Amino acid sequence: xxxxxxxxxxxxxxxxxxxxxxxxxxxxxxxxxxxxxxxxxxxxxxxxxxxxxxxxxxxxxxxxxxxxxxxxxxxxxxxxxxxxxxxxxxxxxxxxxxxxxxxxxxxxxxxxxxxxxxxxxxxxxxxxxxxxxxxxxxxxxxxxxxxxxxxxxxxxxxxxxxxxxxxxxxxxxxxxxxxxxxxxxxxxxxxxxxxxx
Length: 197
Known about the structure:
It contains 9 helices and no strands. By secondary structure, the protein is mostly helical. It is elongated and about 60 Å long.
């Protein structure tokens, strides 16, 4: 990496937790300067404006989330175990997830829908990518005979994300992790009772 590339990556990495905990609108240039220890000129020498930085930070946060999930899947060979490991990951790591500000997709979705229109397209793209990833696992499960042949992979991928994100949102706003567990229980029941052979 060149020095400029290293600086860009450093700014994104240091800004990522701030954007995810404070929000894209509430994060100020002062927050970014404090986190990075850089000057305003250094920030804007690497990013055209705060919006461009926000998009880069969102993509970074989403990719980090996906890498964590890929690591969860990699320890399992069949689709059923991968999906059950997915829900177990959220059971085991809810505290870390909440300390990081919650799910970056959920956080950015709320802001993109209401206040930060420039984030809408990147958020939509990441949700589509997440759906494709989950649907791919489900389709593999059909091929290997783990899941029912007539299952609608995209329907269940959408359902898993909707239930999970609703659980994250409710448990975070209500300061009650049991609400997340309730959502995860519903996903597990769906996997066991509706999808599994």
